[in-house]
Inverse folding.
């Protein structure tokens, strides 16, 4: 199912960019302002021209080029630090590595995400039917974000001081691709609690891809999203932490990580589409608790439960945390019975203050 196209929303939340933009006249502040302006233009363009996805696919000649096998065909473009997409084609599925390390990293990240979906969950690409995976690097001038625009992945180079190269973190690549997975499955709205679930699913998938690439089990993983993106002048580990929401960074320039770990800290705000990047810390932490309680690879039992809910057809686009929790409990019971996995799901949601329903 292909739901309405989502408005582009980057992995760096607007509240963080706004804070950085107010920090003064330094280069990172100017880059943050330009990034916010670009993001606003993209959202406006999407609202005014919702049919652009099909047109753009036809114009590029790849609208029907679906992979017959298990993975998806990858095509990489260089936007040349402009905002016209997709840019110049620089690497195809079967192409050799190129001189630009950004291109090669994204090519590998697309592959790692497609492999997780197919080899673990039996899904052919984001839509289940071999959707080609396109990505553009070097988007904009010092563009400090990365996003899924409804048809492709787009990554900026960062400002070079506070926010670094967005191609350097495989979980960032997978996070944004996961927005495409949600678009083609549950179609979760991007406002309030369904929006926080949307962002959380992307953080979870990004973490699973990263852990699988590194060969890590749930207990040894760092559970950080965007580790290494923050520059050396920023005292912080990453953009978000599933292990300990609210602790990813604490800096005079960026402020403190505002994510709550439980419903006791739920943030009500008109900003950030109702706090989608903030309150996502709650379902994020629930998944972390489930995965570490079960042990082993997080993409196995815990990941299968989340994936069953996302793609099972019963998750409504306006679902709140409680509805998602109930579905995960039901999915655990259906796949594993009312044993260890089901009990772990109930405990994880209860620990973050969400009622998962019948026990």
């Amino acid at each position: 199912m292909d739901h309405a196209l989502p408005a582009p929303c980057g992995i760096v939340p607007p509240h963080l960019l706004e804070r950085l933009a107010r920090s003064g006249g330094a280069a990172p502040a100017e880059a943050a302002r330009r990034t916010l302006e670009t993001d606003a233009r993209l959202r406006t363009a999407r609202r005014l021209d919702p049919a652009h996805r099909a047109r753009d696919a036809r114009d590029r000649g790849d609208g029907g080029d679906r992979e017959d096998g298990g993975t998806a065909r990858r095509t990489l473009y260089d936007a040349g630090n402009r905002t016209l997409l997709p840019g110049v084609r620089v690497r195809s599925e079967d192409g050799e590595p190129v001189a630009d390390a950004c291109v090669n990293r994204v090519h590998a990240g697309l592959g790692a995400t497609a492999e997780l979906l197919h080899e673990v969950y039996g899904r052919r690409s984001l839509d289940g039917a071999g959707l080609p995976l396109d990505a553009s690097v070097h988007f904009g001038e010092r563009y400090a974000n990365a996003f899924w625009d409804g048809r492709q992945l787009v990554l900026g180079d960062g400002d070079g001081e506070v926010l670094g190269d967005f191609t350097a973190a495989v979980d960032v690549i997978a996070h944004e691709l996961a927005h495409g997975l949600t678009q083609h499955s549950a179609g979760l709205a991007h406002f309030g609690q369904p929006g926080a679930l949307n962002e959380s699913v992307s953080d979870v998938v990004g973490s699973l891809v990263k852990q699988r690439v590194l060969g890590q089990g749930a207990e040894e993983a760092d559970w950080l999203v965007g580790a290494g993106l923050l520059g050396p002048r920023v005292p912080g580990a990453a953009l978000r932490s599933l292990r300990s929401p609210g602790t990813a960074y604490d800096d005079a320039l960026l402020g403190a990580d505002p994510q709550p770990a439980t419903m006791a800290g739920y943030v009500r705000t008109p900003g950030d589409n109702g706090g989608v990047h903030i309150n996502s810390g709650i379902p994020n932490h629930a998944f972390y608790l489930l995965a570490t309680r079960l042990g082993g690879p997080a993409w196995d039992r815990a990941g299968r439960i989340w994936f069953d809910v996302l793609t099972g057809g019963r998750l409504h686009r306006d679902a709140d945390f409680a509805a998602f929790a109930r579905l995960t409990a039901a999915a655990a019971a259906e796949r594993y019975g009312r044993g260890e996995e089901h009990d772990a799901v109930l405990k994880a949601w209860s620990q973050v203050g969400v009622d998962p329903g019948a026990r």
